[in-house]
Design brief:
alpha/beta, binds magnesium ion, globular, 253 residues, Rossmann fold, 6-stranded parallel sheet
């Protein structure tokens, strides 16, 4: 099967703790020169695609805004298709503005949407969301990552709070980001390619590689970012290739 595109993760694969990963900028330039199509799939939900684009450009990456797909974008697409979509959002300000076309209702509603909310998560906001779920709202998680790394250390991610709400309310969240198949399908549709023509690259077995396996796509796990050698002992999904970092891609393709 001929490889036509790469679906590449951002955090931990192209950059880590605010710095580009070794050889990552050159690897993207090289893929572009060799006419591969690129899509950047990230579970980062604290930013809109426009903000992510600005961040990647400032790090030195030659990428375009319409190549970036994040879980926030996937969620907006999903909510647009729902017959009833009154929402209560637990997301930061810029991201909430991104959802401005969706009706907000903080009392009787259809969905509680949880994303990066940092200091917004406290007893009262979580208890309010819990009560809405007990009253019949469905739970949407922009993503379910449990933690992430910055230059200041490790931080709880929104998945930790989603898991708390799931346990308390006895509900399972619909996940918008990786490893959700819908997310990968949106990216492939934008390329008009079949799963066999693309390769997923990422540092996280539970989101990138599990997602690729569900889509029956080939995948590359990089040993940067979140990667831990112990994850390869009893892997939840098996990558097609494992590389030291994304710069080694040129040895395979
Ligand atoms: Mg990652």
């Amino acid at each position: 099967m001929r490889t036509k595109a790469f679906l590449i993760d951002l955090d931990g694969t192209l950059y880590f703790k605010g710095e580009p990963c070794p050889g990552a900028i050159e690897a993207i330039n090289d893929l572009r020169q060799r006419k591969y199509q690129l899509r950047f799939l990230t579970n980062t939900t604290a930013k809109t695609p426009k903000m992510l684009h600005e961040q990647m450009r400032s790090l030195g990456f030659d990428i375009y805004e319409d190549e970036i797909f994040n879980a926030t974008y996937a969620c907006l697409q999903y909510l647009r298709l729902q017959p009833k979509n009154r929402c209560h959002f637990m997301v930061d300000g810029a991201v909430k503005a991104f959802f401005k076309e969706i009706p907000v209702d903080d009392e009787a509603l259809d969905f509680v949407v949880v994303g990066d909310y940092s200091d917004g998560f406290d007893f009262h906001t979580l208890n309010h969301a819990f009560r809405l779920l007990m009253d019949g709202a469905e739970l949407i998680a922009l993503q379910k990552g449990l933690y992430w790394f910055s230059s200041e250390g490790v931080f709880l991610d929104c998945g930790a709070f989603v898991t708390l709400l799931e346990a308390a309310a006895g509900k399972t969240a619909k996940v918008m980001g990786k490893p959700s198949e819908t997310f990968f399908k949106i990216a492939l549709e934008s390329l008009q390619l079949s799963p066999s023509e693309g390769i997923v690259i990422g540092d996280d077995i539970t989101s990138d590689i599990v997602g690729a396996e569900r889509m029956k796509m080939r995948s590359i796990l990089v040993r940067t970012g979140k990667f831990k050698p112990s994850q390869l002992e009893n892997p939840v999904a098996k990558p097609t290739w494992v590389l030291e970092d994304v710069s080694r891609l040129t040895q395979l393709f």
